[in-house]
Amino acid sequence: MSRTGILFLVSGPSGSGKSTLCRRLAKDGEAEFSISCTTRQPRFGETHGREYFFLTREEFAAKVAAGEFLEHALVHGNHYGTLRSEVLGRLASGIDVVMDIDVQGAAQVRACDDESIHLALVDLFVMPPDEQELAARLNGRGTDSAEVIELRLRNAIDEMRHWPEYKYRLLSGTHEEDYAKFKALLFGERLRVARLKRD
């Protein structure tokens, strides 16, 4: 008895901890991380093909025109998108894929007409405890200017209104508490009879 892969779609505002959760899950070998494309500039220490595929706006537009994206959106003034090639083959092979994705992209994935995506989809919204904690986390990164932090905070407050669109919500606490709940959700979804297929 085998199963189809799970598409573990994770959203939440900047500073919610969603990226840390997704990358830790992949590092622990529990799922493979879907690397997104972006037109934003790499931050210090980021590498093309590891954190993101860093593309020019022209390269990104060409992939949109060719229909290569499962979803794509304009966020914080930059384009982000998930390549179909990063997801579909893995799911068919029974490999779980974790996606760190904004609310616009999540809505596009839900609206996708690919039946394999609908069967695989598990969506989770990571909610920060409150706006003050969120602002502290964004300032604590030390990677963005005050203007960028202010923009991210405004966008975060807007994003948080979308949590009822998700099947699951995780109210963020400590890193270890969040990760335990995060992993437990994935393990629970693996047991669903609807995912099992007879060999």
From TrEMBL:
Chain sites annotated for binding ATP:
G12, P13, S14, G15, S16, G17, K18, S19
Family recorded in the similarity comment: Belongs to the guanylate kinase family.
Identify the keywords attached in UniProt to this record, alphabetized: ATP-binding, Cytoplasm, Kinase, Nucleotide-binding, Transferase
Gene from which the chain derives: gmk
Q: Which residues form the Guanylate kinase-like domain?
A: 5-187
Provenance organism: Luteolibacter rhizosphaerae
Q: Which catalytic reaction applies to this protein? A: GMP + ATP = GDP + ADP
Q: Where are the transmembrane segments?
A: none
Name the NCBIfam families on file: guanyl_kin
Q: Tell me the protein's name.
A: Guanylate kinase
Its domain of life? Bacteria
